[in-house]
Amino acid sequence: MSRTNLSPSTLREAFGHFPSGVIAIAAEVDGQRVGLAASTFVPVSLDPPLVSFCVQNTSATWPKLKDLPYLGISVLGESHDEAARALAAKTGDRFAGLQTVSNQRGAVFVDGTSVWLESAVEQLIPAGDHTIVILRVSDITVHSDVPPIVFHRSTFRRLGA
């Protein structure tokens, strides 16, 4: 065991030792799909139904989504490692090669994922260089046959059988 200075790079490496799921947050904005990926998804409350994720304050995508009435949350599955990379990219078509479903309220969901949560922003909490986004869930669809993808040590991994 070694001690290191607290720098963004050493913190990123240390935090990367904690495996997490990966979600897509997406909606339609002026007829176009807009979305991003996050590996900081956390269920918060059953009553009321709340979930959260964290988004970088420097995100150019989040300002396009944060004031919309409904957002789609898709829990990405094993087959979505390339999709997760595309959704996290700073440039390019984040939805290239992805099939999506849009509902009447404008929430966008990635097809073939394990869970869809229709949600709305409940609260935004400033937290250092990120914002904690708390969402109220209004509808849920579960596809229990889709195994999740896990982000661990900067790599997408599959869970063992």
Please give the number of β-strands: 12
Whole-number mean pLDDT? 86
SSE order: HEEEEEHEHEEEEEE
Round the Cα radius of gyration to an integer and report it.
16 Å
Q: Label the structural class.
A: mainly beta
Which strand order do you get reading across the main beta sheet? 3-2-6-9-10-5-4
Beta-strand portion reads: 35-45%
Q: Which overall shape is indicated by the principal axes computed on the Cα atoms?
A: globular
Q: Tell me the major beta sheet.
A: 7 strands, antiparallel
**Helix content range of the residues, please?**
10-25%
The number of distinct helices, counting runs of at least 4 residues, comes to: 3
- Report, as a whole number of angstroms, the end-to-end distance: 31 Å
Unreliably modeled segments: none
Could you please describe the fold and organization of this structure?
By secondary structure, the chain is mainly β. The protein is 12% helix and 45% strand. The chain has 3 helices and 12 strands. The chain has a 7-stranded antiparallel sheet with strand order 3-2-6-9-10-5-4. A hairpin with a 2-residue loop joins strand 11 and strand 12. The chain starts with 7 loop residues before the first helix and ends with a strand. The relative contact order is 0.23. The model has no long low-confidence stretch (mean pLDDT 86).
Characteristic terms for this protein:
seven-stranded antiparallel beta sheet; three-stranded antiparallel beta sheet; 161 residues; globular; 12 strands; mainly beta; 3 helices
